[in-house]
Design goal:
rod-shaped; 93 residues; mainly alpha
Length: 93
């Protein structure tokens, strides 16, 4: 990966932070699944299937956002290691 003229400020304008939104999404998934199971038990199968599909969609969205955040963290860590290496080499000279 090339790190020429790359810094924290110009790499990503918006860094994802999925801790709070991720917790909310997990709660939404749990509620959708519980209501879906309840509706399945009551006999409203089509509506419960829709809720299961919605829960799956929210879960897939959460996974995609976590993958994006992990990639951003990896790139920013690579940049930080490169910058620290340059500072260390400049101090030695």
């Amino acid at each position: 990966m090339k790190h020429k003229d790359i810094s924290y400020e110009n790499r990503y304008k918006h860094k994802l932070n999925m801790l709070e939104p991720g917790l909310v999404m997990i709660k939404v998934i749990g509620v959708l699944l519980c209501v879906g199971v309840f509706l399945w038990a009551v006999g409203w199968r089509p509506l419960s299937i829709i809720l299961f599909i919605l829960a799956g969609g929210v879960f897939i969205t959460l996974l995609i956002l976590i993958i994006i955040e992990a990639h951003q963290d990896k790139v920013l860590n690579d940049i930080a290691m490169h910058e620290n290496k340059e500072k260390y080499n400049d101090n030695i000279k």
